[in-house]
Write a structure and sequence with these properties.
mainly alpha, Arc Repressor Mutant, subunit A, 2 domains, about 0% strand
Length: about 230
């Protein structure tokens, strides 16, 4: 169990690898379907206000309705989806976006503190994998891959904190943000503009420069919020 001073028995690298394992990894069908739907949320494939029809989703994913229904119910319980008879991705108000901004500033900032203090060098260096995927996606003007890599860049930092509680709070926020971020990212040139600040975060973490890492993270979150409220 994580005690705030040492890493848990399972290394951070192993935790992150588990979290971002390929969908081809053998797992329960329900979990595979859940991962696929969360991927659609992170990349904005599911748009705000779009009804999520179980039959259509199950046909598109090549599975039966049951695991799709279970996944949607799990996401509704987290507040990621809303609705009564038919669930959908909610439209986020300016107030909700501001709340998410403030929570991210605080909790992702806390994740940086713990990452600098406790994460091993290999796990921190692993953040570079997601950054390089962001660079590649930007060069190829691939919005889908960029949004995925960007989300996983930030979630990797959260996992470096080795705190299941922190992870459980922040991950649903990213599932809610994905569709909104997609709406602000249609200009592919914007992708290139976000790379320098992510490079600053990566370099600061590798150097274990907490102040620089937090400053760069805050810059990224605040810039993102500014784009979102201009929707």
């Amino acid at each position: 169990m994580y005690n705030g001073h040492t890493l848990p028995d399972k290394t951070v690298a192993a935790m992150v690898n588990d979290q971002f394992a390929s969908l081809d990894t053998p797992a329960l069908l329900q979990e595979q379907v859940y991962r696929q739907i969360t991927e659609k949320l992170i990349t904005g494939e599911l748009r705000p206000g779009e009804p999520l029809v179980i039959r259509k989703l199950s046909e598109a994913m090549g599975t039966s309705p049951m695991p799709v229904r279970d996944a949607l119910q799990r996401l509704a319980a987290l507040g990621v989806l809303v609705g009564k008879r038919t669930l959908c991705v909610p439209h986020l108000s300016t107030r909700e976006l501001a709340d998410i901004r403030d929570i991210r500033l605080t909790l992702e900032g806390l994740a940086l503190v713990r990452a600098v203090q406790y994460a091993d060098d290999a796990s921190i260096a692993g953040l570079g994998v997601h950054f390089r995927k962001m660079e590649k996606a930007a060069r190829q003007n691939n919005l889908h891959h960029f949004l995925r890599a960007n989300a996983y860049f930030h979630l990797h930092i959260v996992h470096l904190a080795a705190s299941p509680v922190l992870t459980g709070i922040i991950e649903p926020l990213w599932l809610r943000l994905g569709p909104a971020i997609k709406l602000t990212s249609q200009e592919l040139q914007q992708l290139h503009l976000t790379l320098p600040v992510h490079r600053k975060i990566l370099d600061a973490l590798i150097a274990r420069d907490l102040a620089a890492a937090q400053q760069a993270l805050a810059e990224d979150i605040l810039d993102s919020f500014g784009s979102l409220v201009d929707l």
